[in-house]
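[Automated response] Your request has been received and processed.

Submitted sequence:
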Amino acid sequence: MITRRATIGAIAAAATAAGPLRPHAQSSPVIRIGVLNDQSGVYRDVGGMGSVVCVKQAVAEFATQNGLNVEVLTADHQNKPDLGMSIARAWFDQGVDVITDVQGSGIALALTKLARERDKVMMACNVATSELTGKSCSPNTVHFGYDTYMTANVTGSAVIKQGGDSWFIMYADYAFGKQMKEDLAAVVTRNQGKVLGTLSVPFPNNDFSSQLVQAQASGAKIIGLAEAGLDLINVIKQAAEFGITQRGQKLAAFVVFIEDIHGLGLQVAQGLQLSNVYYWDRDDRSRAFAKRVWTAMGNQPPNQSHAANYSAVLHYLKAAKALGPEEVKKSGAAAVAWMKAHKIDDDVLQDVSIRADGRVISQAFLCEVKKPDESKYPWDYYHVRAVIPPDEAWRPLANGGCPLAS
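Generated structure:
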């Protein structure tokens, strides 16, 4: 249970870390951007302060040069929806205009309603559930980065094509895991595969032994892991200790970040297939962005969610310049409408559209983790095996049930 004292303390700590909300002497009103995410829990490495770095990079590159006054606030929601919503309400009350990253499906689904009620903006950059652009879509929300449909579709289809036609799905017991299970089961069935069983796993979790025994006993060729962050690393490591892959079964992971591969090591992770919407070493533009934030990131590259925050904030600031700060502060829906009407073009995403349901429609990449002897320099971890066109990667607009799509 989250006490009132704990909530107030967390909000106060967030405000202290970010600096006070104070009036500026400049004539242009202050645009306030809040980065809300996990900075101390199981997902801290795949969002956390890395997302803050990339948000600040976008502001540094665009705001001053275009006459915009911007403040960036940060807060740790500790993966607690009640705490996350308390911080969001306090921020909106204090004049925050947009909340980005979010990092957590349960928090995002609640926050998208609040942003619509307050006519603010939510940019989900580290949120898996595809429901944000389905029945829960909103004119005030944009979903950047991955989602459960895309990751299941891209990775699941590739694994099935390689003969992995029977599956056992282990999924985290909260909104992300449940949606991932549903989307993955649909992909398996659509590709003439079979789901032999599914199993809910408590979140967070350190011991997966009993679940792995059940998965092993199912006889499925593929054990699908609808887990993320430290839980994903732990279950893969424990599966290796059980010798599951040596006995003929294979693991398929979906919401996988480059930090996860780093934590596992190439010896354990080699051969793993995964989807991405950004890989730092793919081309000159992706490397250029990674270079600009490398040192601030702690001498490592940004992952796909970090990069999504950069692209999201940059595109929002372009809306602020075009419409004027007063207009985007007055109406978050107007800012999002501008963002949908104009394509995204930066070093992360090029020539990319935002659909009516708020889904950012980029190409996706099927990646395979390199063998240890194939990696030539630090963080050289992926082969890009396929580039999936936008219309093949994402759920069709008509299939999501979003009222904005009609």
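Summary generated for your ticket: The chain has two domains: 4-146+284-362, 149-280+364-397. The two ends are 41 Å apart (CA to CA).
If you did not submit this request, please reply to this message.
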